[in-house]
Amino acid sequence: MLLKLSLTGIKGRSRDYIVLFSGLVMASGIFYMFEGLATNKTFLESNTMISSVVMIFHLGTVLLSIITFVYILYANSFLMTMRQKDYAMFMMLGAKGRKIAQLIFIETFVVGVGATIVGTVLGIGLSSVVQQLLVKQLAIKVTHFAALNSSAILFTLAFFTIIFLLAAFVNAMTIVKKPILSLLKASETPLPANRKRMTLLLEVVAGVIFLGIGYLMMKLVGTLQLIALAVALVTIILGTYFVFHSILIFVLDLLKRRDKIALKKLNNFTLSQLSFRIQDYTKILSMVAMLFALALGAITVGLGFHNEVSKMTEATSAYDLVLNNGQTVSSSELEKITPTSDVAYQQKEDAATVYYDRGQFDQTPFSAIEFDKQNQAKKVQYSGEKLAGDVVAADKLRNLELPEQQTKKHQFLTSEEFAALPIQATELRLITVADFAKARPALKNLAEENLKKNPSLNDGVGNFTQKALIYDMYNALFSGFEFMGFFLGIAFLTMLASCLMFKILSGAKSDIQRYSMLEKIGTRRKLLTQSIRKEIGILFLVPGLLGVIHVLFGLQMFKTLLSEPYSNIWLPFLIFFVLYFVYYLLTVWIYTGIVMRRAD
User: Fold this and answer.
1) What is the mean pLDDT of residues 569-591?
2) Which of 215, 236, 273, 381 is most deeply packed, by most CB within 10 A?
3) Domain ranges of the chain
């Protein structure tokens, strides 16, 4: 009987539960995806490059777990708010508190477990898609990958089951302990924002000061490190709260006093609606702003790490390909690339010395990468005379030699002296290409051939002289951050937008009478719809704008990791705002359907 009653209650609030259900499906699906990649031992052991990003996916799981836990408790509390009148009626009809608790428990648990199962199936599909993206991004072959991972399925089901058990228990206890009259009147008693002007002014000043301190700490995180992070976290959370608890009220009050704005159409009604309930929205708007910053920041930083791969690779070497003993390389492989520069420096060596023809360096100077005081990479060139007299310059050449050559002295001889040495010559062949990205597959094949023909490079030293192999190493690491940032950003967006939807929709029932009265006195439906769009638009826009400001200042923290944290920032912002706008339209549609349908 209780199960049937619970399912009937879920059906009666199907729109609200669908919003919760979709958010939970997305969260559990992404959670499975992270764990499916990070716990596939056979896959990781057979693909050592992929295994370097395992900790990144585990980190993403931890962050997603924390946010998911908060989201579920918060979202369920809104659903309980909308259902509490029904529970109060059951109590008035004689239902015992224990039965009501069981009813709430079943409703919460059924929705949660159902969403988790669907989300896990979605996660299996996401894992397959991400595997394809990961392989394409890293440009490598992987083996033993399975989108269906029993360990990840069990871990996902166990984690979400425990969370829903806790959420169901908290919801049941919260409702049962409230008096019946409080449950009946709870949705009809929002907190008006009537406070003393001096208190409001002090909170406005405090909010600005807290945000200023937080933003300053994010800029100084490279110097103060953990202290700056801790201070920034506390002050930004407090500042965000005061923005909505005081500054927004102050601005709304100011707009209401401007007749040109307030008396136009239904603006006064819209502003009064917001002013009347704004204190009740303070916590949710603060949480949404913080989650918005986390979500947008995750996507922005993730894509920022992707942009760093090429930049960091270019900063490691002036040459795209280094061929030790280059005279042995097959010409057929070299024909696959189009060099813009192909120079072969002759070498001769004995037990203690490596000899070079100075004239070759004078004719074609040796190129190397140096960093200026701002840590910016630049390409410099060294002549034979410079290499002979400058230890630092000679060391840059030494870095491209075979390990057994790097311990020997250098001697730069004239062409006649070099030719007179009775030692067989070898070549250090250095190549650059016009388009590294296009030539990278062929360059990688040549680099791997160079490792095979020079076994002493296989201890790992050779990986740091070949730009194509360096690219793969950086890409393996930063692609993990990129995917983690993208999927965490989507998960956070789903949760924050869903929470804001819950809060707005939870007040829709009490707004029916207001819109009905306006329509009865002759207000056109078009104006009522415009008022709804404006009101919900402000509730979406304000935390979004504050979240953007948080991100713009927060990117200062990544200047030590990203050379240009603000590069191409428009792309993640565009992606995020399109998705955020879709949620806004969905909220307007559901809310309008509730208040306008019943206003007939």
Assistant:
1) 84
2) 236
3) 1-189, 192-313+468-600, 321-464
